[in-house]
Amino acid sequence: MSWPTQQDTRTALDNGLPPPHSGIGHVVIVGAGLAGLCAAYELTKRGTRVTVLEASGHPGGRTRTLRAPFADGLQAEAGALTVSTQCDDYTVHYLREMGVETEPSDLVGTDFSYCREGTRIRPDQTADHADLLGLHPDERDLTIEEMVARYVTKPNKDIGPEILAPLWGPSPRLLELDQLSVREVLEARGASAAAISLIEPYFLEMRGNELGTASAMAWARYESGPWSLSAAGAEWRKIKGGTDMLARALADKVADHVLYRAPVVRITQDDHEVRVTFLDRNRLQTLTADRVIVTAPFVGMRHINLGMARLSPEKHATMRRMRYTSATRVFLQMRRQFWPEKQLMLSTDGPVRAVRDAMPLRPAGRKILECWFSGWSAQAVASMGPEERVDFALDEVEPLLPGTRANFELGTSFSWDNERHIGGAYVLPELGHHALMEPARRPEGRIHFAGEHTSYEPNGGSMNYALESAVRVLLELSGS
Ligand SMILES: Cc1cc2nc3c(=O)[nH]c(=O)nc-3n(C[C@H](O)[C@H](O)[C@H](O)COP(=O)(O)OP(=O)(O)OC[C@H]3O[C@@H](n4cnc5c(N)ncnc54)[C@H](O)[C@@H]3O)c2cc1C
Fold first, then answer.
1. If you ran DSSP here, which 8-state letter would residue 268 be given?
2. Average pLDDT for residues 62-68, to the nearest whole number?
3. Farthest-apart Cα atoms in the chain, separation
């Protein structure tokens, strides 16, 4: 059996999806994030009987807009923030189909600056602080943009046209890079440790963990395209009203087919059917189906007993090996804006990797300072209690933005590692990631796999690739 390619999937988005195979009567979907909801929406449109089982009490998964406990209509995003109209074809397609609007992203055009050992440095002022930063003599006159061009953009272009191809097709050169870490590649390109620490916030700061174990293949692909923060422009948008509006619109369409607070605890299959056992108000219930689509992140799937699911050893190994970024965000409501920057975005050398104004385009009044923790610092903060996290963030932010404590009204936080059925922020492609990609998405008997982690792209981590995975699974169902 040959499975749909990335091109097949993209063509189906444009030309319309075929109905599922006539032998498929009932499909159970595990998870009401974007992948699960999109699959449910497309299947019900084609008259297929669908049951979506969602462990939490709401739709959206890793798109989560926090409206409480804030005052004055303030809100913040615990998960996804940005849509690119240039490359997020699937997101744009479903936003349009659901009638959900976008507006300019406030991650573009920020007043970005660094805080190093207590000194504020703008990206064009690095030459004035070359000693403090510890730059090599030949890097001392470069702005950060010039460092990004020298060590990232230009050499990545030299890899070849495949780096920017609309469909992912790794060349031998790219596969070689999958065995090298981002740090090794940057060092081989001549970047000093100081330069690496300055350009890091432009890329892996967003993705999280350690440059020494991150796959240079995935990074080169990401940084060469319009996904890169250093390339951000007008095509970067955000969803009007909150990122969760897309999931909510999809969930409305399939409301009668979704069971919330229904965590799946066991999946078994034989030659004839697949059985999905879930908790319904603390009682075990079992559904039988012709197919199951599992959209739970692999790290969150540790709560599902798959002992009799007939999964191959390769699938089990892939599920164990797939790594996820840790991300924790702390949100501090301020009585007023007391900083001068219109679009505050501060990268720090402390545990708070970045502090930003969560709603910079909103007129003056109350504000939320959003503190991003990623990788090791996200894990450290995740292990604290809720009040301790807020207090820790206040202690860290006060020296960077004096007046934080005086203007503080209330705080809240969100850790993706601590979400029982999710367990991490998004796939973190580490060395050798390519070997995991095909086994991650390959169906096993009657069980199909969707979700950002099953993407054709090495950098799944987006709403776009969660939606793409749903379209791909619908093609799988039509062919069987
Ligand atoms: C901090 C952060 C920032 C991000 N930034 C962006 C961005 O700017 N732009 C962008 O496009 N994307 C971004 N993303 C990525 C994007 O949010 C995700 O890739 C996408 O939402 C994943 O959708 P999904 O359907 O694959 O998984 P999920 O949304 O995780 O959905 C899976 C669902 O399955 C449920 N589930 C798990 N186990 C079970 C079980 N046993 N039984 C029943 N249900 C279960 C979960 O509760 C969850 O609702 C970001 C993510 C994070 C965390």
1. E
2. 98
3. 71
- Ordered by start, the domain boundaries in the chain are 6-61+243-322+428-479, 111-231
**Which of 413, 414, 396, 417 is CA-nearest to residue 405?**
396
How far is Cα 52 from Cα 298, in angstroms, rounded to an integer?
Answer: 18
Query: What is the identity of the amino acid at 467?
Result: L
What is the length of the chain?
480
Q: Cβ–Cβ contacts within 10 Å for residue 353, how many?
A: 22
Statement: 6-61+243-322+428-479 belongs to CATH 3.40.1010.20: no
Q: Ligand 1 in contact with 62 (CB < 6 A)?
A: yes
Q: What is the rounded average pLDDT of the residues 171-197?
A: 95
pLDDT digits (tens, 9 = 90+) for 189-238: 999 999 998 888 877 555 566 888 999 999 999 988 877 877 778 889 99
335 contacts 407 by C-beta, under 8 angstroms: yes
Out of 62, 254, 377, mutate this one to test ligand 1's pocket (max ligand atoms within 8 Å of CB): namely 62
- What separation in angstroms does the CA of 64 have from each of 1, 75, 229, 239, 377? 38, 10, 22, 12, 21
Phi, psi (degrees; rounded to nearest 5) at 334: -105, 145
Q: Give the separation between CA 353 and CA 369, rounded to whole angstroms.
A: 13
Q: Whose CA is nearest to atom 30 of ligand 1?
A: 61
Question: 353 vs 50, 115, 341, 350, 428, CA distance in Å?
Answer: 42, 10, 18, 7, 17
Q: At 108, is the pLDDT very low, low, confident or very high (cuts 50, 70, 90)?
A: confident
* pLDDT > 70: percent of the chain: 98
Q: How confident is the model at residue 349 (pLDDT cuts 50, 70, 90)?
A: confident
pLDDT in tens, 395-414: 999 999 999 999 999 999 99
CATH class belonging to 111-231? mainly alpha
Measured CA to CA, the distance from residue 310 to residue 69 in angstroms comes to 45
Kindly state if the Cβ of 43 falls inside 6 Å of ligand 1: no
